[in-house]
Design goal:
408 residues; alpha/beta; Lyase, Ornithine Decarboxylase, Chain A, domain 1; 2 domains; 12 helices
Length: 408
């Protein structure tokens, strides 16, 4: 895609008629997303959070496309969540002014980058913290510059990622925040997505209940620097349990509850499709919302070689598509020779993927030719998106009408 966008003639064609994949007007492999699906997905999640009287700050690391962030904001998102300072700066430079960095703000260079934006523009920035050392470093640096940083104290689980492992440890962090006028304690943050195994759903509920109890205790003790503090959590797998648990505890009456799922906009046909199916099975609120999340991402690639009976080598590999949470799924075949588009049968299965090649087993009743095009869906959209600098937007037909950029 990046090569195609360089020539003025190609750009003019894109603007006037689009790039038709089936007419071989683009280089393959190519990654595309369906415009209608991302709009539907954005509205679906906005409706879900609204029904719980909660706010939405989708995790932007999935796509790292500020153009897609704006679609989410236009659909009603309160802000955008990001993971690194570089991602935050990209968002600020694109005009996005409210960001949660769901991570610790560490290091002088990063402090300086955030300070520049706090000094020069009206941005609303939040970061996580879980240690006295980190809070002290942030407090001292920003106090010297007469700036303040919004802090969300992070609670974690044993064996998980960042975050306090015991709620009793939070008192020392609160006390540290109170030592610095540069530290604004705005709420509590958590991430439940690392919980797995047997009874994971119940474990998530218990964990969120504990966070809720802690958040309410700090409010009773008047420890926050705001009248309506934040409780924020929820990845893409358990957001319904997070929402229901906090809703049942009437948290939204006294807190701004902010959910942070990221993969819903793109969705997939792998791990998040399975997670969404489980959500639809257990959440009445989700079932009451018209429609459901739909996969919007496809990779189109050529059949390069048919070296053995039933084995096709596809021009798509680890450089093009995620493979960490399941291999790509074959979905469509387009014959350039006959202009026929057809769905694949269940015998088509990717069995191995290499840097630039994909090994596909297929059945004799759906023969392939070298030069045929095939479409694949993926599992875990995050690790497909970060392989592309440009991604095509398609409507119902497989014609790219515009492109979006990623800022990884």
């Amino acid at each position: 895609m990046s090569e195609l966008s360089k020539g003025s003639g190609c750009i003019k064609q894109l603007q006037q008629t689009g790039w038709d994949i089936f007419k071989e007007q683009v280089s393959l492999p190519v990654a595309v997303i369906k415009q209608d699906n991302i709009k539907k997905n954005a509205k679906w999640m906005a409706d879900f959070t609204a029904k719980h009287n909660m706010l939405l700050a989708p995790h932007g690391k999935t796509t790292m496309s500020t153009e897609l962030f704006k679609i989410q904001l236009d659909a009603g998102a309160w802000g955008i969540t990001l993971a690194t300072v570089a991602q935050v700066i990209n968002a600020f430079e694109a005009g996005i002014t409210r960001v949660i960095m769901a991570n610790q703000l560490v290091g002088k260079f990063h402090f300086e980058q955030i300070a520049k934006w706090l000094e020069s523009s009206k941005v609303e920035f939040y970061c996580f913290a879980d240690s006295i050392e980190n809070l002290t470093d942030i407090g001292e640096f920003f106090a010297e510059r007469n700036l303040s940083v919004n802090v969300l104290l992070e609670v974690g689980i044993k064996g998980g990622r960042c975050g306090l492992r015991s709620a009793k440890d939070i008192s020392s962090l609160v006390a540290t925040c109170e030592q610095y006028t540069s530290l604004e304690l705005m709420g509590i943050a958590f991430y439940e997505g690392v919980i797995g195994g047997e009874n994971a759903a119940q474990q998530v509920k218990v964990f969120v209940d504990e966070v809720n109890t802690l958040a309410k205790r700090l409010q009773v003790e008047n420890r926050y620097n705001t009248d309506k503090p934040i409780i924020t959590g929820a990845g893409s797998a358990w957001y319904d349990i997070v929402a229901k648990t906090l809703y049942d505890n009437s948290c939204s009456d006294n807190f701004n509850i902010i959910l942070r799922p990221g993969c819903y906009l793109i969705h997939d046909t792998g791990i998040y499709q399975k997670a969404q199916q489980a959500i639809m099975a257990r959440s009445q609120v989700a079932c009451d919302i018209p429609g459901d999340l739909e996969n919007s991402l496809s990779i189109w690639a050529y059949v390069l070689s048919l070296p053995e009976p039933g084995l096709a080598i596809i021009g798509m590999g680890k450089r093009d598509v995620a493979f960490d949470a399941g291999l790509p799924t074959a979905e469509l075949i387009y014959s350039v020779k006959t202009n026929q588009l057809r769905a694949v049968n269940s015998a088509f299965k990717v069995e191995k993927i290499m840097d630039q090649h994909c090994m596909l087993r297929y059945s004799d009743d759906q023969p392939l030719r070298v030069g045929d095009m095939m479409s694949f869906s993926t599992s875990h959209p995050c690790l497909t998106f970060d392989k592309w600098r440009q991604i095509g937007i398609v409507e119902d037909e497989w014609v790219i009408t515009k492109t979006i950029s990623t800022q990884f």
